[in-house]
Write a structure and sequence with these properties.
This protein is an alpha/beta fold and about 260 residues long. Helix content is about 50%, strand content about 15%. It has a six-stranded mixed β-sheet, sandwiched between helices. This is Enoyl-CoA hydratase.
């Protein structure tokens, strides 16, 4: 692993740490690639029966590093770029090994989606969640729309996606977006306790339970993520997307025209 991603196996739990605290664990290309490798390593390790995701420092993850947002390698289309990044989302969703998220501080954009992709979410009382892609002139591409609708309900998903507003841990708990809220000092131990408890159970039974429960919304979520790919590819080409980028760079309020 690189310095930006750590992985440690304890009590049959692979603890994957996002380690870019100076950027609130926002992911650039190198960190995203290392993260995918860490997930694969944990999934392929027979000693691992559950996977815990956590962030070093004050935040869980703030998604794509804004310095890399919209940056493409020469000759790579928006569709191809997003399609490649979505493979990691399906790595988590399709995993037979369950994922537990320990969420401290900001879980913003792709970081919020990363938490939502996990099977069980434990948040500290300081956690804040938002899907602010609309402020960047784009839309979610990691299941933010469809997973939020599945766990919190359609109208709450619309509110989060249409406003980009943040909610705190208490609100996220009330809406079903997290499963437990604990004091900040207890976050890592509580999340590890849950992951270890699952890891101690028969792995085939755990995998079967995950598969049965995911079957309720699984096909809808996977279809929704593929539809997000089409939507975001189209939105990258809009004038309002370019206006959002320009306004951000110029530190001014954007003027959207619906074009």
């Amino acid at each position: 692993m690189t310095d930006s991603i750590g992985i440690d196996v304890t009590e049959a739990v692979a603890v994957i740490t996002l380690n870019r605290p100076d950027r609130h664990n926002a992911m650039d290309n190198a960190m995203s690639a290392a993260f995918g490798e860490a997930i694969s390593a944990a999934q392929d390790d027979p000693a691992v029966r559950a996977i815990l995701l956590r962030g070093e420092g004050k935040s869980f993850c703030t998604g794509r590093d804004t310095a890399a947002l919209g940056v493409r390698a020469p000759g790579v289309s928006d569709f191809a770029h997003v399609s490649k990044s979505q493979k990691r989302k399906f790595q988590i969703l399709d995993s037979q090994k369950p994922f537990v998220a320990a969420i401290r501080g900001y879980a913003i954009g792709g970081g919020c989606e990363l938490a939502l992709q996990c099977d069980i979410r434990v948040a500290s009382a300081t956690a804040q969640f938002s899907l602010p892609e609309i402020d960047h002139g784009i839309i979610t591409d990691g299941g933010g729309s469809v997973i939020t609708a599945a766990v919190a309900g359609p109208s709450r998903a619309k509110y989060l996606l249409m406003t980009g507003e943040r909610i705190d841990a208490a609100q996220a708990l009330a809406w079903g977006m997290v499963d437990f809220v604990v004091d900040d000092a207890d976050l890592d131990s509580r999340a590890l306790e849950i992951a270890s408890k699952i890891a101690a159970r028969p792995p085939i039974h755990v995998a079967m339970a995950k598969q049965l429960i995911d079957g309720v919304h699984g096909d809808q979520i996977r279809r929704g993520i593929r539809e997000e790919l089409v939507a975001i590819s189209a939105l990258y080409k809009t004038e309002d997307r370019q206006e959002a980028r320009a306004a951000r760079n110029e530190k001014r309020d954007p003027v959207f025209k619906g074009l």
